Every structure is written in C-alpha cells, then in structure tokens.
Amino acid sequence: MAAGQKLLSFLLFQLILVLLVLDLSNAEGLKLGYYYKTCPKAESIIRKTTYRFISRAPTLAAPLLRMHFHDCFVRGCDGSVLLNSTKNSQSEKAAVPNLSLQGFHVIDAVKSAVEEACPGVVSCADTLALVARDSVSMIYGPFWEVPLGRRDGRVSLLNEVFANLPSPFANITTLKQMFAVKGLSLKDLAVLSGGHTIGTSHCNAFTNRLYNFTGKGDTDPSMDPNYIVKLKKKCKPADTTTLVEMDPGSFKNFEEDYFTLVAKRRGLFQSDAALLNDKETKAYVILQSSTHGSTFGKDFAESMVKMGKVGVLTGHQGEIRKHCAVVN
C-alpha cells in the first residue's frame, strides 16, 4: 500500500513537472509590445475604454481582477471564462463560483473598441489581462507591464472549475497544492490573496464561520469573536443576497489593509485565515501588516505577471475570437 502511494505521488509530481514545462515554454511566446506593429494603439484603446467604466463605477475593478484570476486558474489565461454555454455544453460561466462574476459588459465594450481599430488581431485573453491591470491601477493600485500574445481557447467546461479554482473554504494545504500546480509559489499565494483588499462578498461564502463551523452550531475559533458579532448583524444564516466589504472601509481602494485584517484574525474567508497556518505565508502577512505594505505593490505586480503566464496558448494555438462570449 505504502509503495503504491509513493508511486502515485511520484507520478503526480512528474505530471506537474511536465505541465509546468509546457506552460513555461508557451509563456516564452509572450512579450512586451506584442501588438506594436499589428495594432499599435491597442493598449491605449483598452486603457481609455476601461477608464470610461472605472471612472463611473470604481467598484468594477474588483470583479474584473477576479475575472482574470478565475480565467487563469482554469485552463490557463485563455479567455475561457468569457465563453457562454452552448446547447450541448455548460461553460465555466455557469459554475457556482463564477455566477457572481461581473464586468463582462466592460470586456465586451473594450473588445469591440479594439476590433474597430484592428479587426481580428487582439485576443480576448490579452484584453482581459490588460483590463484587470488597468482597473487596479485606476483605483490607486500598482501598475505592471503585461507581456502579450495570448491566444483564445475554444473550450470552456463547467466541470473543470471546482477542481482548479481555489475556494474561499479552502485550507492552507489545499491552497498550496492548487497554486503549486499552476507554478505559483507560497509567496504568490500570500500576495495574490491581497487582492481581497478590494471588492465585496455574498454572506454565504463565509456564514459557516459564523453559525455552523463544524456542524454543531459553533463559530470558527480562528476568527476574532468581536468581528463575528459584527458580521452576524449583517448576515443571517441563510442569507445569500447581502454583500459585505472584504476590506471594510477601503474596499474601493487598492491598499495593504487586507494584511492588517488577516493578522487581527478578521479575514472574511477561511482561505484568508489559512494564511496564518503556514510559516512562510504568515511571515508575509505579518511583514506587510507591520510595515504598511512596504513591498506589497511591487510584489503584487510581480505575482500578477507570473499568474498571467499560466497555461497560455501562443503561436498558432487557439484562435483570436471576434466576440469574447463565443468561439469563431
């Protein structure tokens, strides 16, 4: 039995290595200024069109960042999260974690503007990566250069979401495994979790921590009891509609407050609290909370570039969709 488990672990490790090598070789097909000759104004058009939306509704930045994250963790950053379901197949959009995604209208408007200038040149996957970056920078977050050249995938399957997308209920062991499979480090896990400094969540993503943590009508002992009292006033046990700020008071501005909350045991999700259960991720939380996020902006930019290279299609793989919600 033990020998069989060792062999299974070894084979899984080998598979992860093969997938990472394939991912990395494709990621080398990405480069800065990719559209310099084929669509020189692409990034400028995308930024201006994105600004039209974010200037009026800054709260859209969080769901657009989340959409990019959800895209990259399932099938890689190939725009598969943007595809609608068809008569024969339900897409990633239909999976429960993606039902609350917002901002598809922004992507459609941006893509439409780019198509007008350069038909059939800029992919939806690149469009989403740039919109996520621009949205964050427009609400006082960091700016990062986005290597481009992603192609759009032709497949989007509902049943691939749960196995690949980290859940708000995940423990540290699961989170570490899910990030490692994507070639992302423990530091990336801590840094990208900091994206929760913006945005809101429905109560049902964390009410188990308030009312029934182990099935005995108890609360999560890893959460500050005073915070539990506050949250109970906003969220009743069966509430599925109320929205709660993930980083109270600064959910519209990108800053380092998230780490201060997690350090005080006030992270909203189990996956936030889980960062304190590993030596390396805990050290990162403490560092940022005690230094007012001294390196968070730079680290977030670096981790976003890294995440944006996960599982990309390049060269002649995939396609350049005309409309992001449907394959050509």
UniProtKB/TrEMBL annotation:
Q: Which residues bind Ca(2+) 1?
A: D71, V74, G76, D78, S80, E92
Return the protein name: Peroxidase
One Pfam match, by short name? peroxidase
Quick one: a GO biological-process term for this protein? hydrogen peroxide catabolic process
EC code(s) of this entry = 1.11.1.7
Is Acetylation set as a keyword in this record? no
Where the record annotates domain Plant heme peroxidase family profile, the positions are: 29-328
Task: State the disulfide connectivity.
Answer: C39-C118, C72-C77, C124-C324, C203-C235
According to its UniProt entry, this protein's organism is: Theobroma cacao (Cacao)
What InterPro entries has UniProt attached to this entry?
Answer: Haem_peroxidase, Haem_peroxidase_sf, Peroxidase_pln, Peroxidases_AS, Peroxidases_heam-ligand_BS, Secretory_peroxidase
Q: What class of enzyme is it?
A: oxidoreductase
User: Where found?
Assistant: Secreted
Q: What does this protein do?
A: Removal of H(2)O(2), oxidation of toxic reductants, biosynthesis and degradation of lignin, suberization, auxin catabolism, response to environmental stresses such as wounding, pathogen attack and oxidative stress. These functions might be dependent on each isozyme/isoform in each plant tissue.
